[in-house]
Write a structure and sequence with these properties.
about 130 residues; mainly beta; seven-stranded mixed beta sheet; four-stranded antiparallel beta sheet; 2 helices; about 45% strand
């Protein structure tokens, strides 16, 4: 069974940086069977897509984080990353990683632009809290 565990969250002042990690067990990132993505959710609001990574290395980002966040993976460590720079108070949220199986009808773009379509697909971590103070 696939399990994803996020880490790296914390509290930081505006303008600071954090790097989130998502380590998988029961699944090898190099197997190319899943799209990988980062999402975030503020209490009382819908979960939103932040960044997505395709098996060929292509990426897509939400407009709100373009130029500030970078998604990447390290196959040798079976870990997905989200480097977050120039953080803003509006980035405060619980951040989740997910592995969405390819072939379910969803596309990599859905991870950012159509989150409702992928919420029940694949595997999700338990989240890590990011708090950005002004």
């Amino acid at each position: 069974q696939v399990q994803l565990v996020e880490s790296g969250g914390g509290s930081v002042q505006a303008g600071g940086s954090l790097r989130l990690s998502c380590t998988a067990s029961g699944y090898t990132y190099s197997s190319s069977r899943y799209y990988m993505g980062w999402f975030r959710q503020v209490s009382g609001k819908d979960r939103e897509g932040v960044a997505a990574l395709d098996t060929d290395g292509s990426t897509t980002y939400a407009d709100s984080v373009k130029g500030r966040f970078v998604i990447s993976k390290e196959n040798a460590k079976n870990t997905l990353y989200l480097q977050m720079n120039s953080l803003k108070p509006e980035d405060t949220a619980m951040y989740y990683c997910a592995a969405i199986r390819i072939g379910t009808g969803a596309t990599m773009m859905d991870l950012v632009y159509n989150v409702l379509r992928v919420l029940r697909l694949g595997y999700w971590g338990q989240g890590t809290q990011v708090t950005v103070s002004s």
